[in-house]
Design a protein that fits this description.
Number of domains: 1
Distance between the termini: 59 Å
Mean pLDDT: 83
Strand order of the largest sheet: 2-4-3-6-7
Oligomer: single chain
Strand content: 5-15%
Helix content: 40-55%
Number of strands: 7
Order of helices and strands: HEHEEHEHHHHHEEEH
CATH superfamily: Glutaredoxin
Low-confidence stretches: 1-30, 37-58
Radius of gyration: 20 Å
Number of helices: 9
């Protein structure tokens, strides 16, 4: 039986250490995003050696032909609607990585001001039972209270948790008529809209949450950020196309 306790004379030591490195790198890659069952966390997953270094990403461009450009008439936009760059986030209210990512995108708005806006789109994962009801609830809030109310509601859900039993109180807490909200939510009138955004995201190359398309509204150039990456990665993607 080979002795694996030293590296001076035994070739098995190097092989063992290489395998450990691969396992650690793969674990890091899995720790930034939730993905649909059977799908990778990103459209083009990085190699283990890259994933182990989250401060030096190589974001992949999504399928440019399938990106749905931001539309102030239909999208929930935080910041300047006419900004040069949009952070198009496909998100899930129950996703812990989306919760972590939420303040990171706000940081980008704070730094770039009118040059960057944030577009929220729904991508509720099937294994998160509270995600789709929360998405429907957010659309009801938008109908009853407008764009600002939508973002207040989104902030509240990510802060306090996506719990179906609490959605009505969240809505009431930001001034929404709870009777009208309950009627809207029960009707599931926004189901087609939510499902449509999920399909659009998948067509663009999104397979997990959060998936953020950094998109230049003038040149149509884009970058894709998979998962809850450090702010430095978001900034690098913005600077590359701004």
């Amino acid at each position: 039986m080979p002795n694996l306790t030293t590296n001076g004379s035994n070739p098995w030591f190097g092989v063992s250490m290489a395998l450990i490195g691969v396992i650690i790198g793969y674990s890091v890659a899995l720790g930034t995003a939730d993905s649909q069952p059977g799908k990778p966390a990103g459209a083009a997953a990085p190699s283990p050696s890259v994933a182990a270094q989250p401060t030096a990403p190589a974001p992949q461009a999504p399928s440019a032909a399938n990106i749905v450009a931001p539309d102030p008439k239909t999208d929930h936009i935080r910041g300047n609607p006419k900004a040069t760059v949009s952070l198009i986030e496909y998100s899930d209210f129950e996703c812990p990585f989306c919760q972590r990512h939420h303040p990171t995108l706000q940081q980008a708005l704070d730094e770039y001001g009118d040059d960057v806006n944030w577009v929220y789109r729904h991508y509720p994962l099937s294994f998160h039972p509270n995600a789709r009801p929360s998405a429907l609830a957010s659309e009801c809030v938008a109908e009853l209270g407008g764009n600002d109310a939508f973002w207040q509601f989104a902030d509240t859900v990510f802060e306090k948790g996506a719990v179906v039993a609490n959605l009505q109180s969240y809505a009431g807490g930001i001034g929404i008529n709870t009777t009208a909200f309950s009627d809207c939510l029960s009707s599931e009138k926004y189901a087609e809209h939510v499902d449509g955004q999920l399909d659009e995201g998948s067509a663009s190359g999104v397979s997990g949450t959060p998936g953020t398309i950094v998109y230049n509204n003038e040149t149509k150039e884009s970058r894709y950020i998979s998962g809850a990456q450090p702010y430095s990665n978001i900034k690098a993607a913005i600077d590359a196309i701004l």
